[in-house]
Amino acid sequence: MKNVIIRTEKLSKSFSNKGTIQHVLKNIDLELYEGDFTIIMGASGAGKSTLMYALSGMDTPTLGNIYFKEHCISDYNADELAVFRRRHCGFVFQQIYLIDSMSVMDNVLTAGLLISKDKKAIVNKAKELFHAVGINEETYTKFPTQISGGEAQRIGIVRALINHPPLLFADEPTGALNSKRGIEVLDTLSEFHRRGQSIVMVTHDIQSALRGNRILYLKDGVIIGECMLGSYEESKQRKEQLTAFLNDMGW
User: Fold this and answer.
1) Domain boundaries of the chain, sorted by first residue
2) How many other β-carbons are positioned within 10 Å of the β-carbon of residue 225?
3) What are phi and psi of 137, to 5 degrees?
4) Model-level pTM greater than 0.90?
5) Fold assignment, 4-249
């Protein structure tokens, strides 16, 4: 049986817009498991990113609780949430947010040294991760403006994983890339998942969603369906299963 890594109880999130209350997430009870590649899908405005931000401690719920390994992070203040994210979460976004004035290596080391002051160990870990994502040593000293979008996103994944986070969150990580570079990034995520990394990814793209073993479908702030695909392997049957599920959800 898989261990639960995040659990929610009646998770709700509302926003006030010009005096009108908008209910974005509504009473979500959810368990996420260690070792899963969980995909969150749904139409635009369904609450996908809001759910990811709440699960990762980037935003706080209006009502309900979020537990990380039985620790209720909903009770944490802003400083405690910052420490939680730094120690337990890695983030990969559609916009990569590498610091242009810093080399590729320094972008990664800056994140690693927030947790550990052992620079030698962080450098060795960075090199190991760079090798895993296909970034060669010649790239270490380059600046973000000197590399491709696909390379930058893979470097973003290295930065996200430098502190060994139990959870990697990805929000449309291939959205700004062409198909070839997008596949490279998806292959990288799949490889880390194969090694045991727990991943939660928001996407509207079927090719990206196929990489997950568990698909959650969100509609109007409520999870209305779930599809289990099993370990990733490229096949016609896998795509047909996901497509049929999405059609049932009203995709």
Assistant:
1) 4-249
2) 16
3) -65, -30
4) yes
5) Rossmann fold (3.40.50)
